[in-house]
Amino acid sequence: MTSAETAIQPRRAESHLQAVRDAAGETVVAQWLAVAAARAEAVAVRTPDGSITYAELAARAQDRGRAIAAAVPDRDRPVAVETESDIDSVAAILAVLCSGRPLVLLDPFLPDDRRGHILELSGARELSPAEIRALPAAPEPVPEPAPGDIAVLIFTSGSTGRPKGVAHTQRGWTNQARDGREFMGLRPDDRAAVLLPLSFGAGFDCLVMTLINGATMLLWDVRRRSAADLRDWLDREAATTAHATPSLLRAWLAGSPGADGAGRTGGLNDLRLLSVCGEPSHHSDVELARRTVLSRGTFCCWSGSSETGDLAFNLFPRDRAVVPGPLAAGTPAAGKRIRIVGDDGDDVPVGQTGEIVVESRYLAAGYHRDRALTADRFVRLDDGRTRFYTGDLGRFDETGDLLLLGRLDDAIKVRGYRVEPAEVEFALRQLPWAVDAAVVADRDAGELTGYLAVDPATWAPAPSEVRAALRDSLPEWMAPRHIVVLTEFPRTERGKVDRAALPPPPERVIEPVRGPTEAALAALWCTVLGLDEVGRSEDFTALGGDSLAAARMLADLRDRWLVDLSTAEFAETPTVAGLAVLLDDAHRDRAQTAARGTLSRLRDGTGVPLFFAAGAGSPAAALLPVVRELPGDGPVYGLQAHGLEQRGRADRSIRAAARRAIREIRAVQPAGPYRFAGYSYGGFVMLEAAAILHGRGERANVVLIDTLFEPELRARLAAGRDGDAVAGTADTGDTLPLPDRRTTGTVTGAATVTASAVPPARGTGARRLSAWNRAWNRAAMRFLVATAGLWRLPATLQWTVFWDLGRALIRQHRPTPYPGSVTMIAAESNPDDPATWSLLATGGVTEVRVPGDHHSMMRAPFAAGTAAAVHAALAANTGAEEGTGDDEYSDDE
């Protein structure tokens, strides 16, 4: 035989089989027997333990079919068979089909209660393959079933509820075989490796597709044999197609050469097609297959359901690119019309989402012994077709591919937003640790729980790490409230994730926080752990925090509150309440040793000192990250508000604060020229001090660091530009109108806190305060600001009070124009117009932008850039103008 003649043999064989099938009609039994006669000597089934030809298998099936019919005389009574991936099970399945009795497939791994439910619901007689082989022979022929007779009862997996029996006709399975030919290209010369248990709907589908298309079925029991030898067996058997679930594919290929992307293997030489079904499949599945076993063949994503049979096929030849994300279901299966309908039952335009409705002659006949449910989901059409409402969401894209988007009843409202768990599950799957992922919705609570299966041999992330990673791909309201990390998922006997058996997330008792320190810490924990609420007594580790998260949190404490706590100290009291005690004690200890005045030495050295004023509500120590990065070895002194750490009445105006600063500065450096820097609110103080000294004939080199205008001051300066006076003498510095302000805000150098006094703050800031509480907080804050410095308050509240005070002083400030030049070092996010500063510094303003925002520019890693800009500005301004004029101000307040 020539090579050309050899090449056309499969086509001749397929053409012959097509004629055989057409002559046999629309029953799976008739087509199977006709194909078996045509392929008599070919191997029908091969396992690692043996093989059987089509002729041998057909003879056994017909003989045992007659025996079953005699043993179960009621044609409507189902026969349940426990099936394995072996020749005896295949023979038993075909024998029941030949008997004309409905077949029920039982999985040997079924739990007893589930098996009992299936047997009770179906009313089936249970016969094992061995019992079927032992039945006495029966010579009576069996009437051939009709196309509309029930061939198989497929019981749903029950992963979200009790299993239901779905009745499929003889005609339906002949159409499934047609899908095998049209989409998978199954032909008589194929050797199809079925890696799905035959008790699965998809496993039985593979059996029908393979045998009615005359191919050889290769059976490997993936649950009883090691997957380590599977590749070699498929290679020896020259498998041309393989069929699995995505979960099995990942588990089988995860340890294969090339799986990690480091290189590619040669693949399986004869494998032309690899199909997956039963679960959602992702682009990573295609890439994994291509790197390991499918070097030249086609990847097939194949979807369906117990009620519809095959639904759609999506083929990825080697040269087709794969878009990241879940794979589309693809092209509708043979003989099935798929519609996407809205709430009114009408078709929606392409691209819009709606319920998937399937219309076909080849759908299930309904639910076994459940007329109400059948009437609710199945509608008989006048043309002989059936319409099935799937309850699934989907849409068609512009290419005509069907996309599956989850169940209609899966969607959940989280904080008013509609969330599809499938989208969140996709985000979990993209994480570097993910082997598998699942998301469960609690509609009553409006919460999601994310489950992540990881390989413990590589790395098991803490829940806090998972939440942090999800922030890159999900909006905050879509992130699961709970994260549970597992080494593997519980699965049903069909390999699907058994959601009912997933462990619940740990129960949490959320005790409201007490006071501003706990409120501030709870807000920090929420950020570090990716939560929206934390109780005062919850354990950091139990919430998903690991050592890395603890280190980040303690580093934040050091940056924001200038307290250096060790991990050992935190480990002894790993709760918000315990940490608040440590934080307040540390601040109390520092306050007791703090200098009595407003000035403290931040760096020793020689030469002209730098006087550096901190922002509102910040101690001078908050400037240390920048001071440490300043080039040179000159001394640096920090200034902070009077009364911030030691009891003392706070200054009631920026001018009063400037006068106090001058007295402190002259005690260190009696005469100029001076070098001044001021951060935020401190910039106003130092610029006012420079103006006062200028009036006394002194020179000052002034650098402002992200000093921001309050709207009231900006408006007043704008009015002054049009002719109104800017400066004034009405401000005596002795009175301060009580501010009407928000009760929360960002403290310069501190944190966002709820500024409540008594009663204690309840909640973490995620809860909305009642109108009464908000009014109480406003009144309490007005009182605390009016008496700032006279009372010793917890550090976080004390800093918030002084931050409020600083903002109020800026709002009412009537600055004295400074005739010298200044440099403004502004963060990238600074919104102020530099021209406004020319009204305060009439000698000229040079603006320099540095990386970071208002807060981060003063902390690592941006502090180094800010320090370099300060140093450069001071060096450039050494030629500041000589001051002239009389001493306008006395040293008395």
Describe the overall structure.
It holds the Pfam family AMP-binding. Its cofactor is pantetheine 4'-phosphate. Residues 724-745 are annotated as: Disordered. This protein is of the alpha/beta class and 893 residues long. Helix content is 34%, strand content 19%. The model is unreliable at 1-8, 722-769 and 879-893 (pLDDT under 50). A hairpin with a 5-residue loop joins strand 18 (378-380) and strand 19 (386-396). Helix 3 (54-71) packs across helix 4 (87-99). Among the domains are: 336-404, Luciferase, domain 3 (Roll), CATH 2.30.38.10; 412-501, ANL, C-terminal domain (GMP Synthetase, Chain A, domain 3, 2-Layer Sandwich), CATH 3.30.300; 599-729 and 816-876, Rossmann fold (3-Layer(aba) Sandwich); 744-812, no CATH class.
Q: What key attributes describe this structure?
A:
893 residues, alpha/beta, Luciferase, domain 3, GMP Synthetase, Chain A, domain 3, Rossmann fold, 7-stranded mixed β-sheet, 26 helices, 34 strands, elongated, disordered N terminus, disordered C terminus
What oligomeric state do the depicted chains represent?
single chain
Strand order of the main beta sheet, please?
Answer: 2-1-9-8-10-11-12-13-14
Mean pLDDT: 81
Overall shape: elongated
Indicate the CATH topology of the domain at 599-729 and 816-876.
Answer: Rossmann fold
How does the major sheet shape up?
9 strands, mixed
The CATH homologous superfamily name of the domain at 599-729 and 816-876 equals: Alpha/Beta hydrolase fold, catalytic domain
Low-confidence stretches: 1-8, 722-769, 879-893
Strand content: 15-25%
CA distance, first residue to last residue: 115 Å
Our count of helices gives: 26
C-alpha Rg, in Å? 39 Å
Write the CATH architecture name of the domain at 599-729 and 816-876. Answer: 3-Layer(aba) Sandwich
Q: Specify the helix fraction band.
A: 25-40%
Structural class: alpha/beta
Number of β-strand runs: 34
CATH C-level class of the domain at 599-729 and 816-876 is Alpha Beta
Region (Disordered): 724-745
Protein name: Carrier domain-containing protein
Keywords: Phosphopantetheine, Phosphoprotein
Domain Carrier: 512-587
